Amino acid sequence: MGVPKVEQIVLPDGLTGRARDVLEGRAEPVPARDAATVVVLRERAPGGMQLYLLRRSASMAFAAGAHVFPGGAVDPRDADREVAWAGPSPAWWADALRCDEPTARGLVCAAVRETFEESGVLLAGPRPDAVVADTAEWEEDRLALIGRELSFAEFLARRGLVLRTDLLRPWSRWITPRVESRRYDTRFFVAALPPGQRTRDVGGEADRVAWMRPADALAAAERGEITLMPPTRRTIAEIAAYPEVGKVLAAERTVVTVAPEVVRGEDGVYRLLVPEPAGDGVREGRA
After folding, report:
1. E strands within 59-164?
2. What residues does the Nudix hydrolase domain cover (predicted)?
């Protein structure tokens, strides 16, 4: 499925008022909050690679009803230096994500924390070379993390775990258009479902979860059966180009920023312009 150089999407009527106010200077853009999201992948026979999607509840203020990957905003405590860390260093991640080390530390921790909160998948282990087999018995901790009663560093320390940053790969960066009332500066990561772990329908912000082949998710969106926001759809299309999970994880990505903008055309219609980054963000794969 080809992606145009600049994709144009007509803005829904409900968003045009805010867009008009921002573009005409009557409202100020809100700052974009740092956020992280993770594409969790698994190999499944027959059928091949699948990815994990959640459908956001219709009551949610942001992206209601859309199918998304696990993720969310960075908690200030995610940058806590007390987080036990194994794998590529914060300095390595700062270079990969093109940000400073505290921001990189917070983004990586948020990626792992949010994935655990929203899917039950935990990229951590008792040793730097091990990963937990299952997390079903840690439901109380998961709920405490969601309620911000427990920090991620405290959770890891309580369970004697280290963060496995080597199980994550950087993928891309998307910034919410400046006309939106809720804005995020989101780094996308990919990860494989660890052996022995299973996702659970954990509820909360989502009312449905599903494992889908990338091609099937894109086809369902084309038929109008599911809603995919532009960053989700573009990411799925990129991953669909790979035949298996190992190839996705082996892709050396140059993280490029995609910042869609809303413009008012000569016909008076407001459109979201989604640019395709220069190049495809891919470097030579790992040996």
Report:
1. 67-68, 71-73, 85-86, 124-125, 162-164
2. 31-234
